[in-house]
Design brief:
2 domains; alpha/beta; Ribosomal Protein S5, domain 2
Length: 213
């Protein structure tokens, strides 16, 4: 990420723990509370029963440090990951490379994510229906904009994603995709989230100002 370099490692050994060092000392990075970065990685580690290490080696900009942390972390599932389900079966693979499901619900920058995954050697596919997630070794849900856009992820999609998470399949939500992990958002109270966390995502102050103005 420009002048910033971050590294990340994920061990799906069933021992949840997270060590995160972004080197960011500011309380706020834009509207983001900087401590929420570590909270996100800890939440992922607990939910996926994974050991997660993220460290920014150097960088001048706090914004770049945070962004590089997520980019380094997001690249990890692209490397020959073979998570096991509760029954011990290996996740689906395609020609020896982990198949990553890139969910398209009309609100994500799929081109950029697909390019990043391809650069890491990952085989990214776009599932046409929820049942296609059964063949995925990992799931990526990108997203940009208003939470109402997630309404297209209906009950069948939520059920399919939750079933794969219960089987130990890694999940990466990017921006709006990460918010979708909550029960919902005050941006669009009628649109349900996945419900993986018994909490509601709150829109930032600047987003509220844009919505009211």
């Amino acid at each position: 990420m420009d002048e910033t370099l971050a590294v990340a490692a994920i061990d799906l050994g069933g021992r949840p723990h997270a060590v995160v060092d972004t080197g960011v000392r500011a309380r706020l990075v834009g509207d983001l509370q900087s401590e929420l970065v570590a909270d996100f990685f800890l939440g992922f580690a607990l939910g996926a029963r994974a050991n997660v290490h993220v460290r920014v080696l150097y960088g001048r900009s706090s914004h770049h440090r945070v962004e590089a942390s997520f980019k380094a972390f997001g690249a990890r599932p692209a490397h020959r990951v073979r998570p096991r389900s509760a029954a011990g079966a290996r996740a689906a693979e395609h020609e020896g490379v982990a198949v990553i499901a890139l969910v398209d619900y009309g609100a994500g920058n799929l081109a950029s994510v697909r390019k990043a995954l391809r650069a890491c050697g990952a085989d990214a596919v776009e599932p046409a229906e929820p049942a296609d997630l059964e063949r995925a070794a990992a799931i990526v849900l990108p997203g940009v904009g208003h939470f109402a856009a997630t309404a297209s992820l209906d009950h069948e999609w939520r059920t399919a994603v939750r079933r794969r998470l219960d089987a130990g399949v890694p999940f990466l939500g990017i921006c709006l995709g990460m918010q979708w992990l909550f029960e919902g958002s005050d941006e669009a109270p009628a649109a349900p989230g996945l419900g993986g966390s018994r909490a509601v995502s709150l829109a930032s102050r600047s987003a509220r100002r844009r919505a009211s103005g």
